[in-house]
Structure formats: structure tokens, C-alpha cells
Amino acid sequence: MIPFGIFTIIEIVRLINSANDNRPVPRRLPPPTITRTNRYAKGISINKQILLDERGIQITAENYIKSTNDDFITIGIVNTSDEVVHVECSNVVVNGNFAYPKVIQTTVAPSTNQLGARLSLELGAWMLEIEGIRAFGQIDFHISVAGKEDSGMKTIEKDVSIRTSLYDHMDTEIINPGRVLTVCDGIRVSGKIVRKSPSISAAFHSIWLENISGTPKAVNFTYRCYSNGAEIHSSATGINLEDGRKSLALIILENGKAIEKTEGSLQVASAGSTELPMPEIFELQYIN
Q1: Are 193 and 272 members of one domain?
Q2: Is residue 119 part of a domain?
Q3: How many domains are there within the chain?
Q4: Cα–Cα distance, 162 to 86 (Å, whole number)
Q5: Rounded to whole angstroms, how far apart are CA atoms 151 and 100?
């Protein structure tokens, strides 16, 4: 699995400060009401297991938790070393195929055989459920443990994999990704509008990013929505995608607004690159 590097998921609001620009400021939309309808809702579990045990740092996967908003893996951290350590979990991949650009991190002080911290690793399950992916059988992610800059501690890096009770039944394919919108440097973008769904109380745009290049890629995708000639909201996702893997973005469309157009921009570079090329911009003309 690829170290996450500089790319993290972000949802951005472009604040426009020019005195000569009277356009409304794009804003974050309030979250819609989500109704989860997964028939496996009460039937997913994991065995408690040690994921990493090195140099006095022990990290354990404790439970699989389902909530109203998402599914989580609870992660327990014990630090019996002499160092204050920074722990980061990134590059979450569900069912070996669906990448979720989420990073969780914490700083853990030295202790004596006591739980120093507990983290909740989000899986993006509610989004996958809307797209028909409901049997979550395998969770992969990357663990990084580092000391303070002046500690001299060598960073620990490890890829880990957790199988759930649904491993033998897990979904790995998308039922309906929509139509292909663009292909840029080996990244295929597909999307569709969903106006009515039993799972979510708003129309939304479903966007799939899929790496068909044959090599790992760093991808930055930005989505903008316009009404009455002005941008009303935007969001952005940055992620590293291994070959063959996909990542889902759901963009909630504002109720009560006449949406004139939506626009996407895509930047693709080799994984680990610190420079991105100029974006490829494409318009999604089938909104209304």
C-alpha cells in the first residue's frame, strides 16, 4: 500500500475576499438525513487482534462498530516506550477495492501497560451502501508511528489487513457507476445524478474515480456547483490510488436551488509526487 504522503481528504470552501467580487461565497451544505438500510447492519464483527507490536508500541483492532452515520473500527494504542509517539492511520481500503481518503491520528504519551489512546477509523460505509456495496468483509489501511523530530526514533510503517465476519460474502463490484465523464492520465471518472434515494434525503451526484493506468497514481478531484451564474458550493478530494482501485465521492446538491451546471477538475500525478499538473476541467451537462 502506498504511504499517504501529502494527499488527504479535504472539503473546502473558497472564500472570496476581493472587494470587486460580489458573487456569493461558496459554502458547506448542511448534512442530509441518512437512513441506512443495510441488511447486514447487525451482522458484522471482527476478532480482536494485534495489528502492530514493536518497540513498546502496541496497536490493536478492538471492535467493528455500526452507527447511524458510518461504520468504524475501534483502534486501541498502548505506549510502553520512553517516547511520545504520533500515530497515524491512513489509506483505508474497503473490500480490497474501494479506497476511502480518511486519515486519523493522535499523539500518545508513554505509559505503563495502560491504554494510551483509542481511535475510531471511519470506513465511508454509508456512501458505499448507497451505491449497493453492503457486505464489508475486508479492511486494509496503513499505520505510521513516529517520535518527535529530535527523538532519533525511526518511524514504524506497516500495512495491515482485517477480515470481518462477512469476508466470504463481500461485495467488490459497482452495480451502476454511471456514464464515463472523462479519462485523464489513466484515471477514469464516472458519475450519475441520483434524485431520489431511500437512503438519503437530498439529490446527490455520485462520482467514481478509478485507476486503470497500471501504476499507482496521486489524484486530486475538485467539484464545483453553479446557480444563477455563481458558484454556490465546492468540494475536493485528494487520494493515492493503486492500480485497479476506485474511490467514491458523493456531492450533495442543494435543495431549492436551480442548478445551472456542475464542473469537475482532475489532476493526476505519479504516486508520491509533490507536484501536480494543470487540472483537466470537464462540465457535467446532464444535471437538469
Answers
A1: yes
A2: yes
A3: 2
A4: 22
A5: 32
Sheet of 115-122: strands edge to edge?
Answer: 49-54, 57-66, 71-79, 115-122
Strands 187-194 and 179-184: antiparallel
- Tell me the three state secondary structure of residue 126: helix
Residue 208 domain-assigned? yes
126 vs 121: CA distance, rounded Å: 14
CA distances from 158 to 33, 85, 217, 231 (A): 37, 15, 20, 42
Q: What is the pLDDT of residues 139-157, one digit of tens each?
A: 999 999 999 887 888 999 9
Q: What is the span of the domain harbouring residue 186? A: 179-284
Which CATH number is 214's domain given? 2.60.40
In this structure, is residue 73 part of a structural domain? yes
**pLDDT tens across 71-99, in order?**
999 999 999 999 999 999 999 999 988 99
